[in-house]
Specification:
Structural class: alpha/beta
Strand content: 25-35%
Radius of gyration: 32 Å
Largest sheet: 19 strands, mixed
Shape: elongated
């Protein structure tokens, strides 16, 4: 062998030796390899397990297991009905049989879409649940609906022993039949978080547990009443179907901080009297509650209130000195909105009448006047033109937001006429410090400085004999931020023609332009 060939062979062996020496991951202890796997997606961690026997051993003892028909190695794509289910369950059984027994499980997830109605127990599913409980699983998530968006009819009877398993702290169930079929009482001694979605079989549901912190109930068919006895409960969310009339009883939940009710049987009396008992409540969300007419809440700890699509609402009255966010979605029906809070940020999502009559603009003015004291007001309206009060209508109205400093407008698309929109918004709030337009997560803004020392005379015909002068009289300087060049030019010309005492305009990062 020549010297050159020997040299190449020597270098090759040294490289191979170096690579072997650098493969330190395979030599790591099993818990560290499992820790590395925990940062990967479940599918990538499964792929990693085939690289070496050491990785495979770590994978077989991995404390988290996730069975998903779209992710497992033996794909069920192309199969329908029972053959598809059988193949998936064979994969599950084979995987579990390779794992050592009595390995403490941190998390066990099982997700499969049962296409047919399975009323009787299915051994493969029961065995998977039994395996999780026997291995003292802490977080158990069972989903037999999958990503199906249509109404789900198939329900599988869940072994009731799941609720009494002492090791489970987080339990999430989706698409199961809960028995007995009328009145169900669940005693959850160790569960801290309970999530029931698209489950049925119970008319009255009673849940108790000293350790319960979070309960979520979503789209459970046939449910008429929910009663929870959990003194340490901090978060409760209920979402019923479109025609749900479920009653909620949370009297003993004195530690409640977060409450969300959607399509629930919530009355004026329930809001006024029962909510007053939740002294620690910080977030309250009420959505699609059809019986609610007068929303009257007094709570010093409340920080966020959301009212969405409660179409019978006539009056809103909130006494909450800590309130910093109020969100409302719907029409302009509440004729009276009173919010006692010194620094609230209001977010309004309004649905405009298609006709946009004078009555609409008059009602809009009355509704917006309720938010004049807000620190910040954000408006999302499906039509920008609905916020531009016509000149002829303005003559009979006063601006509703004279004391407002900061106004945001959320738009779905670029305004057709930026000048008309600015003029309309500045009529609503004639003393703004900042006006922002938010579209596609991008914010454009106008910042205003006013001439506060010079006396304002009736030097414009638009405000003669009116107690409140419009924005044209006192603006001294305008700064434009993030607008396109063409928009900057349009706005500069518009302001120069309409702002009587305007001294300068500027663009963010540019020198001032003298007017």
């Amino acid at each position: 062998m020549s010297a050159t060939k020997k040299s190449k062979a020597t270098r090759s062996s040294m490289i191979n030796y170096s690579i072997q020496e650098l493969d330190l991951i395979s030599e790591l202890p099993e818990p560290i390899i499992q820790r590395i796997m925990s940062f990967l997606t479940y599918k990538d961690a499964a792929k990693m397990s085939v690289l070496s026997k050491h990785f495979a051993s770590a994978w077989n003892c991995f404390p988290s297991i996730s069975f998903d028909e779209t992710l497992n190695m033996g794909s069920c794509a192309g199969l329908k009905g029972k053959p598809r289910l059988d193949k998936f369950l064979r994969y599950v059984s084979g995987f579990l049989s390779r794992r050592p027994q009595r390995i403490a499980l941190r998390k066990f997830c099982f997700s499969f879409n049962l296409e047919d109605s399975y009323e009787q127990p299915i051994n493969g599913i029961d065995n998977a649940i039994r395996y999780a409980i026997e291995n003292k699983v802490k977080e158990l998530k069972l989903d037999i609906v999958g990503k199906q968006k249509i109404i789900f009819q198939a329900h599988y009877s869940l072994p009731i022993k799941v609720f009494s398993a002492n090791s489970i702290t987080v339990l999430s169930l989706k698409g199961f039949m809960l028995e007995p079929p009328q009145n169900l009482t669940l005693n959850c001694p160790s569960i801290k978080e309970l999530n029931l979605e698209k489950c049925k079989g119970m008319q009255t549901l009673k849940i108790s547990g000293e350790k319960l912190k979070i309960v979520v109930i979503e789209l459970c068919q046939g449910l008429d009443k929910v009663e929870i006895d959990a003194s340490n409960l901090e978060s409760f969310s209920f979402g019923g179907g479109a025609h749900s009339s479920c009653r909620i009883n949370l009297i003993t939940c004195k530690s409640l901080k977060y409450l969300c009710l959607r399509n629930a049987q919530v009355t004026d009396e329930w809001i006024k009297h029962e909510l007053a008992q939740f002294l620690r409540l910080e977030v309250l969300k009420v959505v699609y509650c059809r019986l609610l007419e007068n929303f009257d809440v007094t709570n010093s700890n409340l920080k966020t209130v959301e009212l969405r699509y409660c179409f019978k609402l006539q009056k809103i009255e909130i006494y909450a000195r800590s309130l910093n966010t109020f969100a409302y979605s719907g029409g302009l029906k509440p004729s009276q909105v009173i919010i006692y809070s010194p620094c609230v940020h209001a977010k309004l999502s309004l649905s405009a009448d298609r006709g946009l009559s004078d009555h609409w603009y008059t009602t809009l003015r009355e509704f917006l006047a309720c938010f004049d004291h807000c620190k910040e007001l954000e408006i999302d309206c499906d039509m920008d033109v609905a916020l531009i009060v016509p000149i002829i209508v303005r003559k009979n109205l006063l601006p509703p937001l004279y004391d407002l400093n900061y106004l945001k407008l959320v738009t779905k698309q670029k305004p057709e006429n930026i000048n008309d929109l600015v003029d309309g918004l500045m009529w609503l709030a004639p003393r703004l410090s900042k006006l922002s337009f938010i579209s596609n997560c991008q914010e454009k803004s106008l910042k205003f400085e006013y001439n506060k020392t010079q006396a304002i005379e009736d030097d414009l015909d638009c405000c003669k004999l009116r107690p409140i002068k419009c924005w044209r009289h006192s603006i001294r300087k305008v700064t434009m931020e993030n607008f396109e060049d063409c928009e900057n030019m349009i706005l500069e010309k518009f302001l120069a023609q309409n702002a009587l005492r305007l001294e300068a305009t500027s663009r963010e990062g540019n020198a001032c332009a003298e007017v």
